[in-house]
Amino acid sequence: MLQSMLYSVYNTGAGLGTVTVSAVAPDLAQGEATGTSDSQLMVNLFLHQVTLNAAWRNVGLPSLAADGITQIKNPPLALDLHYLLTAYAGADFQAEALLGFGIQLLHETPVLTRGQIRNALNSGLTQSDPHNPLLGVLGASGLADQIELIKITPATLGREEMAWLWTALKADYRPTFPFQVSVVLIQSQTPLTSALPVLSRSIQSQAGLVPTITTASPPNGQPAACLGDMVTVTGASLAGATGVTLANARMGIQQSIAPLTLLGGGSFTFVVPSPPAPPAGSPPTDIPAGVYLLTAQITVGSNILSTNGVPLAIAPQIGSAWAPGPIASATAGTLTVPCTPFLRTNQQVSLLIGSQEIPVTPFTTATNSPSFAYGNLTPTGGLVPVRLRVDGVDSPITNMTSLPAPTFSGPMVQVT
User: Fold this and answer.
1) How crowded is residue 189: how many other Cβ atoms within 10 Å of its Cβ?
2) What is the pLDDT of residues 322-334, one digit of tens each?
């Protein structure tokens, strides 16, 4: 990706002529540079070190259950990449000028946006290296959709460290700029075993004196709201609330919802929009499942202020008519599950039969009928709840209003 960005800078409008941008070891780059004419300009990117990112190193741990075998999480492998940017030229000051263009690009791009990453992986690599056999794999890597944006920062290498590095590389030193790229997250999609949800929770909080939100509660004590549900928001000094905003940075969504029903100065309700299904071939207009940050807009005099944010999960929901019947164990098959809202292509989706998780069959357009290919399921010994999990949020399978205690409800299936 960095190679394609540098290729565009050097060969589009820079007035430098043709500049070769490579990503090989310095000894190979040196051999290529010395084997061409003196007028040949060349810049090389070299990944000389990969280290674990300290901030993300323990995220998602533990990944195994108490038995040390059962996989319960897929923790991300978080890496910092350490690069050398080296310039090669045969005339005075050309190498320094090339290095300056590259450093300016890195300085002006401290954070790689999701759009830049997508463009580089989908078209930039094809332009700079059209015969690379990894083009398809890199384009489908999902790097642009990882939760944390990629940042570029300069690095400092002392004279001894730089001398040792170039000696180890068995190449002559050329003008070089070291920098670091952080953080790249690599996460496996291995099927997991997931525990059933807690049936009851007890949370208390104390509201402040300024317009403040403390909780956003889905109906009937559910942990997440579905499309069409009425959500109750509580806090303090909310009498001037006129609307709410649901934001999901990873999905690039910021949904405004109005009107609200005020229940006094300390609470109000709103309904999660549930638009009708779009015509075939049209993009969906519903709110995707996932975790959102909810803020309220408060009118104070002539000003509209935003409150603090609280999390609100929007859950997927399996169609009420779906009834797959018994599933034979140790046999392969496919389940197609109708659901709302539509699933987007960059979401993580799986189906859980009891505690057995089945990853979704990849899809290329938004769908409300995903398929799940399974094999070697373990007998359940009876009916167990079925959950659709989208970006970590499960479809509702509990009846929190039943007495004397909550019970499991919703779709059930048995693996025989």
Assistant:
1) 11
2) 988 899 998 899 9
